[in-house]
Amino acid sequence: MHPKLFKSTMLNLLRHTLLVVSLFLISLIGWAQSVKPKVYIDPRGTRYTPQQFDSIQTASRGKPIAQMDVIHKENETQIIFEVLADNPVDQFKAKWIGKQLPTFSLKDIQGNVYSNTSLKGKSIVINFWSTTCGPCIEEMPLLSDLMAKYTGKNIVFIAPAPESAGRIQKILSKRRFTYTVLPQAQGLISALAVEGYPSHFVISSTGVIEDIYTGLSSNSQTNKAMLDNRLITAIDKVLESN
Predict the structure, then answer these.
(1) Which residues of 158-179 are buried (b: 16+ CB within 10 A; e: fewer)?
(2) Which of 33, 104, 114, 196 has the fewest CB atoms nearer than 10 Å to its CB?
(3) Cα(103)–Cα(187) distance, rounded to whole angstroms?
(4) What is the average per-residue pLDDT within 111-132?
(5) How far apart are CA 224 and CA 163, in angstroms?
(6) Among 46-60, 89-103, 128-142, 144-158, which stretch is predicted with the lowest mean pLDDT?
(7) Beta-strand runs (E) in 22-112
């Protein structure tokens, strides 16, 4: 082989080798960074291992944990967190339970008016829902069965939703739902500051909000939707007090 050709070949081989080594080192550094141990740090600066943090989550019993920041150090990833004092759902319930249901007047799909005045003296179960809420649609048959249990009782089951009657009817054509649906109910939804669907309100015959339940419950074994027994208990309680 000609000396110049040999020299050129060796230089190319060296460049290729250096490139491969560089790529390997870069990937090694990236891998090392990705497996850096995580440490959780609270506002007081106390450090917790992932296992200790799991214990904190369990002990918090539903209180929200806010992740404030993530800091990548050379030897660890620091996750700054804070356990909030109150669950927002608990705050919402505390704000409204024991208060009068705000004044409202809404029409159902057939044009019948439902209001505080028309429902005076009756207990009310309200299901706030939306056509875009999967759990709301999933629980419709369960709520229909619930309503059937109280046939002939002094209680009304209504389901306000923010959407138009036309949009709602597309959903109802495919689902069994016997609650009285009240379209375009954004006024009442805003008055109560309802942020999550489904939300269930149980109202006494005097118009007082007695209980509130949010979300959809599920069977821990089958993972199928189920009614919250506390909702049934609350309904029975307001009927007993009539």
Answers:
(1) bbbbbbebeebeebeeeeebeb
(2) 33
(3) 10
(4) 96
(5) 27
(6) 46-60
(7) 38-41, 47-48, 65-72, 77-83, 105-107
Tell me which DSSP letter residue 160 carries: E
Q: What distance in Å separates the CA atoms of residue 87 and residue 64, rounded to the nearest whole number?
A: 6
- Least-confidence region, from 12-26, 63-77, 157-171, 210-224: 12-26
> Cα 183 vs. chain centroid, distance in angstroms?
22
Q: Under a CB-based contact definition with an 8 Å cutoff, are residues 72 and 111 in contact?
A: no
CA terminus-to-terminus distance, the chain: 106
Element (H, E) at 14: helix 3-34
Residue with tokens 């489904």: 198
User: Residue 200 and residue 125: Cα distance in Å, rounded?
Assistant: 7
Residue positions counted in the chain: 242
User: Taking a C-beta distance cutoff of 8 angstroms, is the pair 154, 184 a contact?
Assistant: no
The pTM score is 0.66
